[in-house]
Design a protein that fits this description.
Layout: E1 12-16, H1 21-32, E2 36-41, H2 46-54, E3 59-63, H3 69-84, E4 89-92, H4 107-135, E5 139-144, H5 157-177, E6 182-189, H6 198-202, H7 204-213, H8 226-233, E7 244-247
Parallel strand pairs: 1-2, 1-4, 2-3, 4-5, 5-6, 6-7
Helix pairs in contact: 1-8, 3-4, 4-5
Amino acid sequence: MILDQFKLDGKVAIVTGAGRGIGQAYAVGLAEAGADVAIVDVIDMDETIAAIEKLGRRAIGIKADLSKGEKEAPKIVAKVVKAFKKVDILVNNAGIIRREPFAEHSAKNWNDVIAINLSTPFFLSQAVVRQMQKQGRGGKIINIASMLSFQGGILVPGYAASKGGIKSLTMLMANELSKDGICVNAIAPGYIATANTAPIRADKKRNKAILDRIPAGRWGTPDDLKGICVFLAAPASDYMTGYTYACDGGWLAR
């Protein structure tokens, strides 16, 4: 039955930045589909863990400084394998944004954003891929891109560069890893109501300009992203790899 192809029973997922917001929705959505979930964050993860355990799934929280991805990645994977014996799914969700005009954008802001948004997904994916290759059963990696993977944006040069890089990295990974049965795709969320977008929503002029362009007529919510995450993690998408999928209320179509 086709609905069985969307089940994640017996799968183990890692979701970074899942203490709240979009990452929390991804983690809970995967658990609702049947997966056990390892959450990686620097903030408190108790709320997400409780939501997953309430569903009857197992969950662990791993505190890690994702600005140091090269150092932290092998440790994260080792802890997940110790707890769950394997890794089937990785969602590289953790990310930050720094707003500053291009000519004034500081080296610190640039380096901080690139480290967490681009370098850490690279290093964590490397560590997870090595584990998946050892297991010999393939797997799913889901990177988190952005509308700025397709557009330039304003005032966020580091963020735009990192998300453009994620889109290209996703394609490269798909090209190299398909032979191992590892599918790699990316989700590009549209304008989602989270803490990251609070400054924009508070700006009445900017908020109106955004809403006027979204055919759906509203900001998205973290729950709007659960379906695409589960789909890309599930067997239903086994012949899909290397693509960045927008979930944006029609923003890019406008």
